Known about the structure:
- The chain is 73% helix and 1% strand.
- With 326 residues, the chain is an all-alpha fold.
- A hairpin with a 2-residue loop joins strand 1 and strand 2.
Amino acid sequence: MLSFEQILQVIDGAIGQLVFASRAQRLFDPIKYTLANGGKRIRPAFVLMTCDLYGESVDKVLPTALGLEIFHNFTLLHDDLMDEADIRRNRPTVHKKWNRNTAILSGDAMLISAYRLIGETPQPYLREILSLFTQTAIEICEGQQFDMEFEAREAVTEAEYIEMIRLKTAVLLACCLKSGAIVGGAPNVEAEKLYRFGLHLGLAFQLQDDLLDVYGNPQTFGKNIGGDILCNKKTFLLIHALKQASAEQKDVINRYCRSVSGDFTPAEKIAAITSLYDRLQIKELTENRIAYYYDKAMTDLDSLGVPAERLTVIRDVSRRLMKRES
């Protein structure tokens, strides 16, 4: 079994050897910039980890893993563009470093590059992997659409929000875990269990991200704190704050959410909403829900027909994700 550190070395080495040959090299400069910006590499790592659980070599799944990592970064590039975010991983976002048109076009090239790499999956598994990836890609777009629609709605339920983040975030983690298992030769029932594990871990991961957006350390989070508050995003925290708030507190939240530029400074808005979260104990509620989905993920992992010692790496990485600061 490979350690997590060994897996990361394999991934970083393979990313460093990627060649984007084109007569229009400026098209690929933002892609190189995005990929060189690091990140946790957790998605391609999960591909290699689950392949390693059932197979003897991870080399055969490397193109799939790289394609999924490029696709993930493509979604971040477009997400930053749509949210007008300034910072990603402590560096200017692509549309800020270059411009919006460059971000759109280079993002399109990233998506095509992802498909090209996934198309290099070994033939016996290619059709199933392409089908899974294509379904995942459209589900992520559906999740993004719901996220946009929620911004214009007065009320969003927890169930609606959980379904949105399942689509927008969790299905890609699940796809990575299942893809590695498929290429590694896992039985179908095992691959499906790993997919469910990825869904539950992905939900916990996104709720943790929501929490960090409010309570994280700006020096380690990698992007500006309070971005969700400034964009009036219907996160788990805001949904439950509106649900539990008194009439007076709800009026305060709505006043800030309906404010226009100049009514309040960004810092004032972030401080006011965070203060309400504190009074309503929203942080504790979110932490409990994170623990709920994480426990479900661990139950999925325990149900695999794999010796417990072979699951140590995946279990340790999952634990690190829940204790992360970025």
